[in-house]
């Protein structure tokens, strides 16, 4: 059975992708950072005792800043596929830490590409490129749209994007860019706006928070459901030839609409709880992201099924449950890994 390396396995996408690959029979090797506390919460349910010779998930300490460890990893594991998801992935934070973001999000990809090239392992690689690279390019954005990055994060991702294309063309690597628009889930990092909102609504209901401070409410994003997007990553590496593809829903909504939907779900009037705080504004904002994902549909048959409303509700239900609160209405289901699964027991 195939072997894959996932960088960023402890992140939102890494955890869903690990689930998907294990279900498909892969052996999965994940790169994790050393930290003074455990931070493997998202993949805890997948843990297998490394003493078990049949264990199909193996974690390796390493860092995207350390090329020698990356090269060793390729010699040791000799993977068939690599999913490069590790990054400093927060756009607002990238303005505070531009050179760190350039190093990890940009150069990190190059270190990985070099490790593959030097080790001579004939594997395929997926690069987690981002719709953020389009910046303020006119919508809808597709594979032909111009990149106009408006953050250190976007510029770093764009560098990695072009290096992937260079290694594909120069060295014949099977290297793909998935240009993914925003995708969210109950596992989304707590400081991204969607999760910040759904957690806050639950905390307000539980009486633990009074106000939700947000930045720009008018920014628009094309928000999809993360488990459907990791399926797209896998499909990209199963093609006959490598290419670059856009993944998104083809719908755009403002942060304000997300707020209205989340508060409305539990019958709260958001205007009583939301306040604007300039500290969450960005020096340069990306005003409107809207995907044209028709090429991914044509080539891969990839099409997302979860709508904006469903996404808000899936996230709300999970955060209400985490806060020990009952969800409004029972029997909600969500699509994970192509199957219907209960979010909570019916
Ligand atoms: P995430 O939850 O922030 O996860 C990022 C992962 O990268 C974490 O596992 C993190 O490890 C790891 N990482 C950070 N710095 C590292 C370093 N120096 N060395 C090794 N690993 C490091 O991000 P995500 O939402 O799953 O996104 C996955 C990838 O897709 C990212 O590259 C992101 O930029 C890109 N992307 C995401 C979206 C989206 O909407 N989610 C859209 C387009 C592109 P720790 O757990 O130790 O922090
Ligand atoms: N995080 C955050 N916090 N964003 C806020 C807030 C707030 O309090 N208030 C308003 N926003 C606005 C941001 O200004 C932005 O326009 C929008 O909400 C979405 O912000 P994030 O959820 O932080 O995501 P992002 O779009 O900047 O970046 C995400 O998507 C990219 C793909 O387009 C990240 O996952 C990136 O890694 C990813 O590449």
UniProtKB/TrEMBL annotation:
Enzyme Commission designation: 4.2.1.47
Catalytic activity reported: GDP-alpha-D-mannose = GDP-4-dehydro-alpha-D-rhamnose + H2O
Annotated InterPro entries: GDP_Man_deHydtase, NAD(P)-bd_dom, NAD(P)-bd_dom_sf
EC class: lyase
SUPFAM superfamilies: NAD(P)-binding Rossmann-fold domains
Entry keywords, A to Z: Lyase, NADP
This protein's record includes keyword Iron: no
Span of domain NAD(P)-binding: 5-315
GO MF annotations in UniProt: GDP-mannose 4,6-dehydratase activity; NADP+ binding
Cofactor: NADP(+)
Role summary: Catalyzes the conversion of GDP-D-mannose to GDP-4-dehydro-6-deoxy-D-mannose.
UniProt name for this protein: GDP-mannose 4,6-dehydratase
Organism, as annotated: Candidatus Methylomirabilis limnetica
Gene: gmd
